[in-house]
Amino acid sequence: MPRSVTVPNVLASKNHRRLVMITAYDAPTARWAENAGVDMLLVGDSLAMVVLGHDTTLAVTMEEMLHHARAVMRAQSRCLVVGDLPFGTYQDSVAGAVRAGVRYLKEGGVHAVKLEGVWPDRVEALVAAGVPVMGHLGLTPQSVHAFGGYRVQGKTVDAAKAMIAHARELEDAGCFSVVLEGVPAEVAAEVTNAVKMPTIGIGAGPGCDGQVLVIHDLLGMSPPPRPRFVSPYAMLGEAAEAAIAHWARDVRDGHVPTAAQSYHLNEDAARRWRQITKGEA
Ligand code: KIV
Q: Has domain 7-234 been given CATH number 3.60.21.10?
């Protein structure tokens, strides 16, 4: 990948290299991902669930997304950073979508936004305003209640055909890429063949042009149950709990802080201090 990943680079990567994207919500996660060499960071609205403790992504606000986007932007210099437009910021009107997208780039500093579902008029208007847009089809979590749960989408022939049509609509409207989430592998591969923009899969099999994961899932920081497409590459949650428990034991047993971990007076001040505290003045 070139030094700085840009929207044109991502478009040009189709059929040349597989794209790697991961969520980041703050400076440490952005730094880890960038140092690890990923192409794109997603300030995902999964923030609501994995960081803020909500049950769904619906509650997260634009202010919260901007707050976290700024932290990500301070810690990275090479990745393409995409910010999720939160639920309620683009559904009501084209003008509202443009306002939210422009605000994201202006106040959050991200390079592009992502929105869920089939909104070609919003995509066109955002792109015309200079805001690059990534689409998101399939199991779009902001529609969890409409779907009746987190259910794989595109499982019938009609639904699969509709998904291909929707991906084309998003591409024609100007999306530079599209996330396919919770989609049968055969269908995601066909969507990938049907469009020129790269597809980024999550729970959508190996036939996509790239893959994205929630960093807390990849690093074993989210509690089970885990979706079948998540095989943690580390168990940081368990490691963190063990480290905190170890330190708590050491504090209770009086093992920390040690003399070496403490600050001390210089020799002269220490001698005078001893005289004062022991009444030897
Ligand atoms: O919010 C998010 O983390 C996402 C990914 C699951 C693609 O949208």
A: no
